[in-house]
Specification:
There is one protein chain. With 501 residues, the protein is of the alpha/beta class. The protein folds into 2 domains: 211 residues, Glutaconate Coenzyme A-transferase; 231 residues, 3-Layer(aba) Sandwich (Glutaconate Coenzyme A-transferase). The chain has 14 helices and 26 strands. It has a 10-stranded mixed β-sheet. Strands 15-14-13-12-16-19-23-24 form an 8-stranded mixed β-sheet, sandwiched between helices. Helix 7 crosses helix 8. The longest helix is centred in the middle third of the chain and has 17 residues.
């Protein structure tokens, strides 16, 4: 278990977290409507459901910034004068702006999410949410449900295709988004599970969620815009600094001591991360190295590596672009996995078998703690997602980032928010050199022997401080607006209310 590291005095605010709870509680979800699941409209279904003040409802984010379902459902619930609702969404995006009005009216009073961006994130930062927001990891979300810390009353699942039995697939239909890994837990554990689909069919023989977990089915004109699932740039950066960082990162992988046949790999969808994949692909061809698997949110660049035979298989919890959606539909070696199998610490997650993970950072401090939750101004603009999960599980965690962006330095004495603890971060690659966590003597020795440009993280900070100066201190109020949970439920940081200046 991780330590609270100085935050113990605030623990009473977050008594839902049991630091000793490790037991995985399994209980089968029962569908109570085997032959009569379909309802003519969302309004008719909501009139039938046991809606009440104080309930917890869940949503998944595979349609990302193209999702229509959360707003659609919440608008109807608000019309029924239901208040004090907890939203348990795997992630919140700018498209969910209508939630801000519901927060201000007291209809929504609590949010749990692994990632929050856009107007909702800003509203939370400025204290509009009446209860403390809980920001967990993707794996931590599953743990919260399985442990009983969160009980989902009704799960609403955006379903690109659904058949009469309630079997759901994300691979087909006009709103196809690929893997539905984050929705699996919701379907299995919610008291009531509703599939909302815009492609209702007679029968599916390939599906992501079994109909036995689905209680009701509603057909609507559209569940979202599949173009909105695209994450990050989905294009390799052309920035010379980003390309230099990516080349250095490929060299770190090459000489790390873990680059060999059967290695495993994960990266994100940002421009520099995709460039790492590009250089890694060249390196694998050159060295005739074949990996066992790549995992996580999958992009077309990773699909290319699978189709070129560089990886044996892909484990996909969510698709980051439409090329990945095509691949998971057509390629048997592109395998959909649940969020539990991906990152749940109480399962046997894929992330614990990773050799390399490439991650970004908004900030990193001298202890290698990483912030991807807030901007440099202290406003929420993201969250862990799988960041802390993969960093904790991987043998080599590599942070890639330029030393400054718009004259804002990357390296701080202490990050504004500790999303990922420094003890699970191994390497920082920048345009001015490679800083290795001192605890990784093996990596230091290997990279030094290879002649790579090693520097200390203190030296990198000294350089940016000299040219940019020390940033002004951000002003926060006393009120805690969000708690940051590690993958095992440990509270590792807090966010306080942002003060207008």
């Amino acid at each position: 278990m991780m330590k609270l590291n100085g935050y113990k005095e605030h623990y009473e605010l977050f008594s839902h977290v049991d630091l000793n709870k490790k037991t995985k509680l399994i209980y089968p979800k029962k569908s109570n409507l085997s032959n009569n699941k379909f309802r003519d409209s969302l309004d008719k279904l909501l009139d039938e459901l046991p809606l009440r003040d104080g309930m917890t409802i869940s949503f998944h984010h595979h349609l990302r910034n193209g999702d229509y379902v959360l707003n659609m459902v919440m608008e109807k619930i608000a019309q029924r004068n239901i208040h004090d609702i907890t939203i348990f969404a795997s992630s919140i995006f700018p498209c969910h702006k209508p939630l801000v009005d519901l927060i201000e009216k007291g209809i929504v009073t609590q949010i749990y999410a692994a990632y929050i961006s856009g107007p909702v994130a800003e509203a939370i930062s400025y204290g509009k949410l009446s209860k403390v927001c809980v920001m967990h990891t993707h794996g931590g979300r599953v743990r919260l449900v399985e442990s009983g810390d969160v009980k989902i009353d009704i799960a609403f699942i955006a379903s690109p295709t659904c058949d009469k039995l309630g079997n759901i697939s994300g691979r087909f239909g006009k709103s196809a988004c690929g893997s539905l890994g984050y929705a699996v837990t919701d379907a299995q554990y919610a008291e009531i599970t509703v599939a909302i689909t815009d492609n209702y069919v007679d029968y599916l023989n390939v599906y992501d969620i079994e109909g036995k977990y689905i209680d009701y089915i509603v057909s609507v004109p559209s569940i979202g815009d599949p173009k909105g699932i695209v994450s990050g740039t989905t294009q390799i950066t052309r920035n010379p600094i980003g390309l230099k960082i990516a080349r250095l990162t490929a060299e770190v992988i090459r000489y790390s001591g873990y680059f060999q046949n059967g290695f495993s790999f994960q990266t994100g969808a940002g421009g520099t991360s995709l460039a790492v994949s590009y250089y890694l692909k060249q390196l694998m061809h050159e060295q005739q190295i074949k990996g066992s698997f790549a995992s996580g949110g999958i992009t077309g660049y990773i699909v290319d590596m699978l189709e070129e035979g560089l990886f044996e298989r892909l484990y996909d919890v969510q698709c980051f672009d439409l090329e990945a959606v095509r691949s998971i539909r057509d390629n048997k070696n592109h395998i959909a996995i649940s969020a539990s199998k991906y990152a749940n610490i109480n399962d046997e997650p894929v992330v614990n078998d990773l050799d390399f993970v490439i991650l970004g950072a908004t900030e990193i401090d001298l202890d290698f703690n990483v912030n991807v939750t807030t901007s440099s101004t202290g406003i929420i603009m993201g969250g862990s997602g799988g960041h802390a999960d993969t960093a904790g599980g991987s043998k080599v965690t590599i942070i890639v980032s330029p030393l400054f962006n718009a004259r804002i330095p990357l390296i701080k004495d202490r990050v504004l928010c500790r999303t990922t603890p420094g003890e699970s971060v191994d390497v920082l690659v920048t345009e001015r050199g490679i800083a290795v966590n001192p605890k990784r003597i093996d990596l230091i020795d290997n990279l030094k022997e290879a002649g790579l440009p090693l520097v200390s993280i203190e030296e990198l900070k000294t350089f940016t401080d000299k040219y940019l100066g020390i940033p002004e201190k951000i002003n926060f109020g006393d009120r805690v607006v969000a708690v940051i949970e590690y993958r095992d439920g440990t509270v590792i940081d807090f966010l306080r209310q942002k003060i207008n200046t």
